[in-house]
Each structure stands twice: as C-alpha cells, then as structure tokens.
Amino acid sequence: LLRVVEATEAYKAMNLRYKQYEEEASRQGFMDTNDLERCYGWAKYTHKEDSGSTEWRPAFIEKSKISGGQYRGRWVFEPGPKPADIALAAAAPTFGGGGPGAPPPPPPTVDIEEFVELDRTKVLLAPRVPKFDDAIFPEHKQYLEQAQMLRSSGKSDWEIETVLNKLLDDKWEEHKTQAQVQDDSQKWPRITVDIIRGYLQ
Prior knowledge:
Layout lengths: L8 H6 L1 H10 L13 E9 L5 E11 L7 E5 L7 H9 L24 E3 L4 E3 L12 H7 L2 H6 L4 H23 L13 H8 L1
Antiparallel strand pairs: 1-2, 1-5, 2-3, 3-4
C-alpha cells in the first residue's frame, strides 16, 4: 500500500526524517554563493615557485576596497606549502637525536593570503548576474537610461535588448571611424537582458 502525504509544516513536525531530508536538500553549497557581498567564481593563480605558471582556482570574489572597479578574492582552497619549505623540512635533522621516540620536525610553513587583489581580466564569476557587482559598463549607461521608457511603452525586455544593442553598434561604428580602429577585437560588450533587469531593479 502506497500512501501519499502532502509535505506541510505540520508533517515535518511529525516526521523528523523528512524534516532532516529537506534541510539537507535545501542546504546551500559554497559553489552557490551569490549575495550582496561576494560570489563564487574562479581567479587566475600565479605559481611563483614554478616560473610564474598560472591556473584557474576556485575563489570567493568581492569588490576591491582599494582600487575602484577591480575585485579581490579569497581562495576556496588555500595554497599548500612551498616546495622549498618541504625540501627544507625533509632535510632538517630530527629532534632528540632522531631516535624512535623523537618528535617529528616542524611542518613546513604555509603563506595564507586572506585576500588577493585581482584584475577583472583574471576573474570569472560563476553567477550569470552577480548580486554584489552593480557596476555599469561606461558605454552602456546612456542607453540603459532609455530602458525604463521603452518598458513603459510596452516593449518586452528582449525587445529592449535588441533596440539598445542596435544603438550600441551604431555608436561603435562611429567610434571606429573617429579613432581609426581597424577591427572589432576591442568592441564593447553586448547589453543583455540580465543587465537591463539589474539596472531597472
């Protein structure tokens, strides 16, 4: 016999196993972090002990408190000890003569960086619309100011996106002519529906 029960607050009080299941299912992981202060993402980490090689590492990213328009991040998984420190610890003599009961050598030190200043080009934000980053691209501002009027006239956000990007493209072509730009490699980013909705909030 199969019994179907509505998942109400009263049922949670009766069935503690279901209550525990719902709490675990709704628990937010660190990869879902996206609030008004920071969000999850990836940042480019430089290995100073490996000829400056780089890799993308998971990080919690927020606005920089030093330089405007930049980010700062904290690594989700802190870097390990430096190779030189590991070698030094391995070569160090053991205390108490190195007998069977002698204490081990001290572990290699780890440089823990609380926050690292990051350039925007070295950061990838995981959320499509980060809640903490309300910065507006300078070339978008004059067109986003028209978004409210276009929405009031009955246009959908998708239609507004098309209209504003057409204006942005015309402005870019004008800029290319004036600045004698040869290609579109430095073309301004597109105005998306998410940017429009974030601006109008």
